[in-house]
Amino acid sequence: MLLSVASNGAVTPATLDNRTFNHGDSPEVYDYANPPMPFPVYRTEPIIDEDTDIINGGQLWVNRAGRIGFTDIAANLNNDEVSDFEVFIRSSFCEGDPTTLTIAPTARMELGQWDAAAGITNTAQVYVQADATVSIQAQGELYINKDSRFIVQEGGYTEVLSDGLLSAGFGGQVRIEKGGEARIGSGGILRVSQDSKCVVEDGGKLVLEPGAIVQLWDGDAPFGRAVLEVQGELEVQGSIDFSGNGFFDFFQSHILSLTGGIFRIEGRGIGKRFLRLRNNTTLDIGDNTVELLEGLAEYGNYAKISVGQGEAFISNMELKTGGQTAVGLLADGATKIRFVYNEAYGFANAVEAYNTYPANALDFLFFQSGFSDNRNSIWLSNGSNARVWDCHFNGTGTGVNAMLLDELQSVRVDASVIESYNVPTEPEYMTWGAVHVSNVGEYIMSGGELSNNDVGLYCPPGKYVNVTLRGQAEVADNDFYGLHIVEGNREGSNYGLVTMDCARLLNNGLAGIKGQNLILNIDAFINSQTDNLAFARSNHFQRGPNDALWFDICYDGTLAETINAIPAEGNYWGTDHANPEPGGGLYYYALDKTNFGGCGGFPEISLAFGTKASGVPTSCPSGPPTGPHVPPSKDCSGLMATPTEQLGGSFFDAFFAYQDRLEQEELTETTYSLFAAVAQKSNTERGTASDQCKHYIDVARVFVPHTGGQNLQSAGGSPQGIQQRQGLSLSGQPSAFPNPAQDEVAVEWSPGTQFSLRAINAVRPAAVRHPPLAGRQLCRGLVLPALHYRRRAARPSAQSDGAAVRPGVA
Fold it and tell me: Which residues lie in Polar residues bias regions (predicted)?
């Protein structure tokens, strides 16, 4: 006290109860010759080293204009200059005891003063030093004005409890230096606004507890200047509440600790930035979950978001970079990837994923997203069943790829457009494709377009793929080849099948399909299981100009040598060649066969055109009115020791079960073993069969790996019983259709049985589970707007007891 009086200074009181204390420095000089009475305060002490409580509306100012010390004492002099003043919060100088500054309910601490109209910019620097704590409690506030700083130094600690507020505005800053720590508790608020910053320096630490509130506001501009810079450690203990048009700015030196297992930020919509990764920065999620929603994420050169054995859910996002060096999402071993309603451009790889085997088929999903100007938009290697639905891929360059797909069980591409992908240099078209596949069990394209590329799809030698084009899928106007599968195999291996079911192969420059030993499953009657053109799902084949071919396929080996014709009835063969049989020296396909290696010359295998469609197919009929299970009249004569009906019936039963799963976007692997009855026929039996029957066996062997009738293996699970022609789905299983659904879905099940229903919203991470159903029992509280239930007897009519009903009505 004596020292304080002697220097005419004032110290912060231990309790600031409903009063205001202003730290500052008077411009007047103490007159020792004529000391004034009473002693005025010329300067406050720049140190707080004893426990201090600000309570009951009290305020602690640092460097405001006006009286210093207690602002309600008239004798105190004024601090009215534009200046800077420092205050150090530290442990007790004498005893070394820790010091705590508490900002209690309704209390406030304010650093500096900015009044542009009055021309005042007083700045303050407050340092929280070793063994010192600043505790901002409920309804307490610490506010940092323009160009002022609140700095947590080594050994210092700041906490913001529920409903407390740490706020910087108009260029103020919160800085957490090396060895310092700040913690935003559940319900606590960190607010950074108007060109201000919260900077976590290298070695500093910011902890966000579950429910912490982070507000980064800078008006309505999509690129707000309010920023949380992370150069040190950011520990996120759970889901946080983020709002604003500012952004998280991660530097290369940062550390992201996710003790709560999740890093989730939801912004304000596509185009509005809330995340920036500096050059060479990896946002490492580890084996945790990342959820980025509704906003813009910017990537510097060689930046990426990385996920291990965790989950990634990215929705309504714009992922933006340049130079094709960054990776939008790198996942290795992820259990869930959902990439929906996004735009990604400028990346080396927009999504790069390895070893992804999620438990649910919808957890490996790319939905209604756009990709452009990426070197590779989607690169998937070693995984299960990936879904690409309603996406748009635009090459905008040479030597780039829409998708690189390697070692995957199944890839389903629905209603997607892949266009404008060109080879780096023209000679490379023989080893390149917009979609590059290797060792993919199923590549299923339903609807959509693979068009205006140099080569649509390419599978290199030594690798395998089975391709299905269905539902008006269009492979068209590719400069060289639509599909180029270098090596198929008719010698009993499970690859090399190309199925076209109501698809379009149009105007490709050299050939629609090129390769070796490919099994062409293009007969519309076989695939539609009807010989009635009114109900057949016809394919549309149209040659390109300049002697282009539909097919350029070479067959060799002993099995291929026995083939004379490939079934191809029920299709439409183009407006310029309605009668496609070769004649007059013109050939529209090259189906050569040889035992001696190498092909070329006139076709030695013909297309069995038979009955042809007379008009361009514009729809995909579901089947004849008697049901989609009536097979066409296709002879299997000549097969030794096996009734033709048994072989044909077994094939169509298995093929319908496969198509049923395919139509519902369910796992088709569960039906593979149903083909065993046909696939087990020996090569001797196959060799004496008709071309039609050879085709059945060859297709069946793709689904059941086979060697000479021995060593049968199933790629799927145990069959639930062979599909009966009058049945709805595999025995005892409920049927949901359509699946997936956008607006409504109907569910059928057998009387008296129970099952669990899981309704998944593909664009949100949460799932809705419901209890078992039986009879007409409904799920009460179901949140889907139009989910119908139908009890399955035979096929209930609209008037039957099993008619569709809406939840909550009955």
Answer: 708-736
Q: What is the crossing angle of helices 691-703 and 644-663, to 10°?
A: 50
Residue-wise burial string across 366-400, b where 16 or more C-beta atoms lie within 10 A, e elsewhere: bbbbbbbbbbbbbbbbbbbbbbbbbbbbbbeeeeb
The DSSP bridge partners found for residue 337 are 312, 364
The continuous run of DSSP H or E covering 549 comes out as: strand 549-556
Whether residue 111 has pLDDT greater than 90: yes
| CA-CA-CA-CA dihedral for 707, 708, 709, 713, to nearest 10 | 0
Q: Are 720 and 730 in contact (CB under 8 A)?
A: yes
Q: Alpha helix locations (H) across 266-310?
A: none
For residues 166 and 174, the answer to whether their CB atoms sit within 8 Å is yes
- Amino acid in the structure at residue 567: P
Structure tokens at 398: 């040479």
Between 9 and 546, the higher pLDDT residue: 546
Q: What is the pTM of this model?
A: 0.84
**Which residues neighbour 547 within 8 Å (Cβ) at sequence distance 6 or greater?**
none
Element (H, E) at 386: strand 376-389
b/e per residue 522-559 (b: at least 16 CB within 10 A): bbbbbbbbbbbbebbbbbbbbbbeeebbbbbbbbbeeb
- 3-state DSSP helix/strand/coil percent for the chain, to nearest 5? 10, 40, 50
Distance separating alpha carbons of residues 45 and 23, to the nearest angstrom: 7
| 285 conformational bin, left if phi > 0, alpha if psi -120 to 50, beta if neither | alpha
Residue type, 208: L
| Number of helical (H) and strand (E) elements in the chain, helices listed first | 7, 67
Distance CA 519, CA 591 (A): 11
- pLDDT of 722 reads 28
Average pLDDT over the chain, rounded to an integer: 83
- Count the neighbouring beta carbons within 10 Å of the beta carbon of residue 625: 9
Nearest to 654 by CA among 631, 688, 633, 621: 631
Nearest to 355, CA basis, from 391, 330, 326:
330
What is the pLDDT at residue 803? Answer: 33
Two tokens, residue 772: 């078992």
Q: pLDDT over 70 for what percent of the chain?
A: 80
**Residue 527 vs residue 632, higher pLDDT:** 527
Structure tokens at 794: 């035979």
Backbone angles phi, psi at 793, to 5 degrees: -105, -90
Closest CA to 620 of 535, 542, 541: 535
Domain residue spans of the chain = 735-791
Q: What stretch of H or E contains 192?
A: strand 189-193
User: 434: closest CA among 451, 409, 412, 413?
Assistant: 451
Count Cβ atoms below 10 Å from residue 742 Cβ, excluding itself: 7
Q: Which helix (H) or strand (E) holds 437?
A: strand 435-446
Please give the full DSSP string across 787-799, using - where no structure is assigned.
Answer: EEEEE-SSS--TT
In this structure, the dihedral spanned by the alpha carbons of residues 224, 225, 231 and 237, taken in order and rounded to 10 degrees, is: -50
- With H, G, I as helix, E, B as strand and everything else as coil, classify residue 370: strand
Containing 684, the helix (H) or strand (E) segment is helix 683-687
Alpha-carbon distance 305 to 353, whole Å? 12
